[in-house]
Amino acid sequence: MTAIGYARVSAGDQETALQLDALRKAGCDRVFEDRASGVKGDRPGLGEAIRYVREGDTLTVWKLDRLGRSMKHLIDIITELEAKGVGFRSITENIDTTTSGGRLVFHFFGALAQFERDLIRERTRAGLQAAGERGRRGGRRAVVTPEKLEEARQLLATGLNVREAAARVKIGKTALYEALKAEKSVASTVKPV
Question: Could you say which architecture CATH assigns to the domain 3-99?
């Protein structure tokens, strides 16, 4: 069984020294590193570490947040490692999936993460349904109000272009273009009486 380490820092000016010391002290002979935000999906060091580990090895990190950008991502990575017969160890949180207690703790974390995702989904659906019943729809409030559209239309009539009119009424030119286009398409569908 070989302990393989993985260290990550978010910014280029940060140092991995603390992590590297802890990983070496934990018995890691080989350590892979990344200097990238945890949000980035493309982390070459992590990819290389996952390709490098073999059945019976243990991928070791200093802290859980060094490996995954979210609980779901962390679970996905550890599930991938388990499928290869590779254990996982987090030094700070004292989680070791090569032990039955460590597997239990990790699966408990996974169940809590799934429960949280399900609750968020349910609350979102219930909120949207309640808003719909009150005649409201989701999404952002319209930037171009009827008053701003009328004011922009008057400015356009004086000879200003769309960019200038949008700047004066404090809206984006793209939003004004879209509002004017929507207004024209509505006007073209209305039949004169």
Answer: 3-Layer(aba) Sandwich (3.40)
Mean pLDDT by 10 residues, the chain (193 residues): 90 83 94 79 87 95 85 86 93 90 83 83 88 77 86 92 92 89 66 46
Residue 64 is encoded by which pair of tokens? 């859980």
Q: Where are the domains of the chain?
A: 3-99, 146-189
The values of phi and psi at residue 32, to 5°, are -105, 145
Q: Which helix (H) or strand (E) holds 126?
A: helix 100-133
Q: Is 100 one of the catalytic residues?
A: no
The residues, any chain, with a CB within 8 Å of residue 96's CB and separated by 6 or more, are: 58, 87, 88, 89, 90, 102
Global pTM reads 0.60
Catalytic residue among 10, 37, 90, 188: 10
